[in-house]
């Protein structure tokens, strides 16, 4: 999504000083436009020095007037004291004591918001806490005061959140469940749920500014690092984060009084990390962070000794989270943790759970979500009488439920129930689970044995359910019971509070009347898929709050008409709230009719914003008219759909793929359109004349149009597209040129991409006039001989030329030859790949160049020194598969900003320059399959900033340079150096105290074991041989 686009990113309150983490975070942003900006806020000067490319800007304290206004806003809901004059004097005095710090004022104001008495404010002003020396604990008095006045039930909840490190983002439900497991929240009297009480506690802390909402996700929250310091201060020795207790000698300082602990999960967690826990015999919390693990996270491994030895000694544990670890089984001793209330094994590789788990009579939460290898649950699950939450979402290999799960009458969350025919696993098990809340997925409904079983399950009385998924088997060879599926679905009618409903693989011939009944006043989402025997869609247009409707693979439906809309004289509007409507893979659908009585008025789909039609090969005729609110229209693989003239005044995005080219000519009033993508329109020879009047268009993408010969008809052009910023033409083999000789591209363009246009012979003239152009990408255009005679725009930042096999020269201005008549480009990225006919002109590359990549260019035998003398700003160089390259430039060592150097598959390269490599900022060096290379670079031990070194495929190397390796390596990979001998005096691995990852292999063929004096680096975590 960021690729080549300009963006602004704000990283707020950064505290992490780890350079590797910053490099990993920075990497995806490098694909964006060089004009992009990243703003970082931090209280740590080291962070500013590491991340910044310009001098840090130091914020000053807020002015007194701004402070007073901010305080009043949070304490009184107004920017002044006009409505509370009696509080003005004492309020001003409190503000002065906050010393211009916004967080201190917000937190105190949140405390006073529900205290409107003068004496209550005066008590805060005169508190002795103001007079405690700040230096003794480094906590602002105003923050200590805010904590002091918290109710006792909130104090322990807040202090517990010390377990979350600075910068950690958490979700409300995640925290509330932890509080409940620790016993901080007790069941309230009356009908109120303990979860609701926990939510109140959470929002109380949020309203008092102890928590703040994440700027990234609305569902996440975090603590300011000053508030985190406060939590650490008030928690004392009771709570600790493992990473915070390491002294200068690498030892952990952990008190025996610790009750709650957390630690950051690493890729390889060895037993040494957990040795401090042997002192904490009364530990209640063992929490691996982060609690939420994304699907693409790095796999993490935990030593078995934690299970075999440590857990058995932590007999007072209430909360155990091992989420995200690659563990496949639990030991039987898990059943001895009799106090355990919360067990999180989500996103692990657990295959089964021991039966001893069923002895945990106090267990309230069992999270097994995303355990994709889990095949079954213990058969004694019915003994877990205290279980409230059983999360088995995305446990795809689990094929049956344990026996008698209906005994778990306290269950509030059961994310999935798999129906079976045998006793103890039938749908009747749901009968007593009257407290179920949230989502419930019913799988294998074809196994319902009798209709009365569904009646006994009684979904209609489970009032806490708001998201219901009903799924029959998709396998054609599965034996379905003889019970009428219509009756089953009819009896599965839920309570009318339902918000979301999904139905899959239902084989009844019609839907029961409750589906679409307007009494479901809270229904916002409906998904109906793969119901092969349905010939007519249910009446859904009267659902008052339905916003998202998805109809997919309903292969028996040929007609959508007034029945679908539910048209009656009693309803003024149909689909009155619908915003997104999707039809996908409707193989027999032919006609779409709108009710005649509503045709002339905007009473059908009045608020529809997005319409998707995909793979409807027989659909012909009209689309609904008067879609005045439609913002996005996507039509894919609907070749017969032509439609009459369609007015879409609000449309901003249009995507068309495999459609009749005549459909384009039917679209009118596209004055609001900003993005147009046209793909695989087989008979399209040029864009319609009307499309030259898209005055708001910013993005135009044309792809895979085999008959396209020019973008516009003769005489038409870009003159009216004054807002166009991005133009991409891809896979158009008949395209000879973008525009006519006498035409010009819009001067507003910022990005141009031309790819896989096999007959394109030239580019448009006048490109020098595109003063806003930042990115130019020309790829797979084998007949392109040269660029226009004039130079490229001076502000061009990125130039990519890929597989243009006939191209003979670079555009003028890329390499400056000293001529004053040619405009010099200020490129920051130059990438040249697969251009065998290209010859580098003499001259210098741009001084601002930061990234240089040259691949598959056999003409390159050396890089002239004169080409690079001003390129001191280079940060990244990659040279690959240049088979004739004999040498790298000697000036390489002078590139003081270079951070990464990759040299790949340069078979003629024998030596690195004698001057060595740049020593100031180089952090990654990769040398790959340079088969004739005789040695590594000189003075590698001087590369004090190098952290990642990869050496692969050098059969000629016999020794390493004198002096050993760079001292601060974090990862070292050496493979395929068959002549290299393992001599410990030469390797000096014992000196690499920072090394975490070591991969070695395919060298010293005579070696059968490591030498006796071979010493593993002291902090090595991962060794691969």
TrEMBL record:
Keywords: Leucine-rich repeat, Plant defense, Repeat. It holds the Pfam family WHD_DRP. GO terms for molecular function: ADP binding. Residues 2-75 form the NB-ARC domain. Residues 427-554 form the R13L1/DRL21-like LRR repeat region domain. Residues 163-231 form the Disease resistance protein winged helix domain. GO terms for biological process: defense response. InterPro entries: Apaf_helical, Leu-rich_rpt, LRR_dom_sf, LRR_R13L1-DRL21, NB-ARC, P-loop_NTPase, WH-like_DNA-bd_sf, WHD_DRP. PANTHER family: DISEASE RESISTANCE RPP13-LIKE PROTEIN 1, PLANT BROAD-SPECTRUM MILDEW RESISTANCE PROTEIN RPW8. This is Uncharacterized protein. It comes from Gossypium tomentosum.
């Amino acid at each position: 999504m960021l690729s080549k686009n300009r963006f602004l990113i704000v990283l707020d309150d950064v505290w992490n000083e780890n350079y590797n983490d910053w490099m990993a975070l920075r990497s995806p942003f490098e694909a964006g436009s060089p004009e992009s900006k990243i703003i970082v806020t931090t209280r740590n000067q080291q962070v500013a020095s590491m991340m910044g490319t310009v001098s840090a800007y130091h914020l000053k304290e807020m002015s007194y007037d701004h402070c007073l206004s901010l305080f009043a806003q949070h304490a009184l809901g107004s920017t002044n004291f006009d409505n509370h004059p009696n509080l003005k004097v004492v309020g001003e005095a409190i503000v002065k004591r906050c010393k211009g710090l916004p967080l201190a004022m917000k937190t105190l104001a949140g405390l006073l918001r529900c205290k409107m008495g003068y004496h209550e404010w005066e008590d805060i002003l005169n508190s002795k806490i103001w007079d405690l020396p700040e230096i003794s604990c480094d906590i602002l008095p105003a923050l200590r005061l805010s904590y002091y006045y918290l109710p006792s039930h909130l104090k322990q909840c807040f202090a517990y959140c010390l377990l979350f490190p600075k910068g950690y983002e958490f979700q409300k439900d995640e925290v509330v469940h932890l509080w409940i497991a620790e016993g901080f929240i007790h069941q309230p009297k009356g009908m109120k749920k303990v979860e609701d009480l926990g939510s109140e506690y959470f929002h109380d802390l949020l309203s008092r500014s102890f928590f703040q909402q994440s700027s990234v996700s609305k569902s996440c929250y975090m603590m300011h690092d000053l508030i985190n310091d406060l939590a650490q201060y008030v928690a004392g020795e009771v709570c600790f984060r493992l990473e915070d207790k390491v002294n200068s000698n690498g030892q952990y300082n952990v008190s025996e009084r610790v009750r709650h602990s957390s630690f950051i999960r690493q890729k390889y967690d060895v037993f040494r990390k957990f040795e401090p826990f042997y002192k904490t015999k009364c530990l209640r919390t063992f929490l691996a962070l982060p609690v939420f693990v994304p699907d693409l996270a790095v796999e993490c491994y935990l030593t078995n000794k934690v299970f075999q030895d440590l857990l058995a000694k932590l007999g007072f544990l209430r909360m155990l989270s091992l989420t995200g670890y690659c563990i496949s089984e639990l030991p039987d001793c898990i059943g001895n943790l009799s106090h355990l209330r919360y067990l999180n094994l989500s996103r692990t590789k657990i295959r089964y759970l021991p039966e001893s788990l069923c002895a945990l009579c106090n267990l309230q939460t069992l999270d097994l979500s995303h355990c994709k290898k889990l095949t079954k649950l213990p058969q004694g699950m019915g003994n877990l009488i205290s279980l409230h939450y059983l999360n088995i979402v995305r446990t795809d290999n689990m094929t049956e439920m344990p026996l008698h799960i209906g005994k778990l009458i306290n269950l509030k969350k059961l994310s999935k129930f798999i129906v079976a025919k045998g006793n103890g696993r039938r749908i009747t098990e749901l009968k007593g689970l009257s407290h179920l809340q949230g989502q419930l997925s019913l799988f294998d409904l074809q196994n319902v044995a009798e209709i009365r079983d569904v009646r006994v399950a009684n979904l209609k009385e489970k009032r806490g359910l708001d998201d219901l998924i009903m799924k029959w088997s998709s396998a054609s060879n599965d034996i379905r019971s003889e019970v009428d599926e219509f009756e089953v679905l009819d009896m599965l009618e839920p309570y009318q509070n339902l918000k979301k409903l999904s139905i899959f693989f239902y084989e009844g011939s019609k839907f029961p009347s409750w589906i679409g009944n307007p009494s479901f006043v809270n229904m916002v989402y409906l998904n109906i898929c793969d119901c092969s025997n349905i010939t007519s869609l249910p009446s859904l247009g009267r659902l008052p709050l339905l916003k998202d409707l998805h109809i997919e693979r309903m292969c028996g439906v040929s007609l959508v008409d007034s029945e679908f809309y539910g048209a009656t004289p009693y309803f003024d509007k149909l689909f009155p709230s619908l915003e997104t409507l999707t039809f996908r893979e409707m193989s027999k659908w032919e006609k779409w009719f709108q009710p005649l009585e509503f045709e002339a008025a905007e009473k059908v789909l009045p608020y529809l914003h997005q319409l998707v039609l995909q793979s409807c090969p027989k659909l012909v005729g009209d689309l609904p008219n008067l879609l005045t609110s439609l913002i996005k229209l996507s039509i894919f693989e609907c070749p017969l759909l032509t439609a009459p003239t369609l007015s879409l005044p609000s449309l901003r995005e249009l995507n068309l793929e495999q459609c009749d080219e005549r459909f384009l000519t039917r679209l009118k009033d596209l004055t609001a359109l900003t993005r147009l993508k046209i793909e695989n329109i087989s008979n399209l020879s040029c864009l319609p004349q009307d499309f030259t009047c898209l005055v708001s268009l910013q993005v135009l993408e044309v792809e895979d149009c085999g008959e396209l010969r020019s973008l516009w008809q003769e005489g038409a052009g870009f003159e009216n597209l004054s807002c166009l910023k991005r133009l991409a033409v891809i896979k158009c083999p008949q395209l000879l040129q973008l525009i006519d000789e006498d035409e010009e591209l819009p001067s507003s363009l910022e990005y141009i991409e031309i790819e896989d246009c096999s007959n394109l012979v030239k580019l448009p003239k006048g490109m020098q006039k595109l003063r806003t152009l930042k990115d130019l990408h020309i790829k797979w255009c084998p007949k392109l001989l040269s660029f226009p005679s004039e130079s490229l725009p001076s502000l061009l930042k990125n130039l990519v030329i890929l597989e243009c096999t006939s191209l003979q020269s670079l555009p003028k201005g890329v390499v400056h030859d000293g001529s004053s008549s040619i405009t010099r480009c200020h490129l920051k990225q130059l990438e040249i790949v697969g251009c065998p006919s290209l010859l580098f002109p003499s001259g210098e590359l741009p001084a601002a160049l930061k990234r240089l990549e040259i691949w598959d260019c056999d003409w390159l035998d050396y890089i002239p020194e004169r080409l690079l003398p001003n390129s001191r700003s280079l940060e990244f160089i990659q040279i690959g598969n240049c088979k004739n390259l004999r040498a790298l430039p000697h000036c390489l060592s002078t590139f003081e900003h270079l951070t990464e150097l990759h040299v790949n598959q340069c078979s003629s390269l024998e030596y690195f320059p004698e001057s060595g490599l740049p020593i100031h900022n180089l952090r990654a060096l990769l040398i790959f399959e340079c088969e004739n290379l005789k040695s590594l670079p000189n003075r590698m031990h001087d590369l004090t900033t190098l952290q990642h070194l990869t050496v692969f495929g050098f059969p000629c190397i016999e020794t390493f340079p004198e002096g050993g390796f760079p001292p601060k390596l974090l990862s070292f990979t050496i493979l395929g150096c068959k002549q290299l001998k393992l001599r410990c005096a030469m390797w000096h691995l014992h000196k690499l105290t920072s090394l975490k990852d070591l991969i070695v292999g395919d060298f010293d063929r005579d070696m059968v074991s490591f030498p006796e004096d071979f010493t593993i680096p002291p902090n090595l975590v991962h060794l691969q041989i």
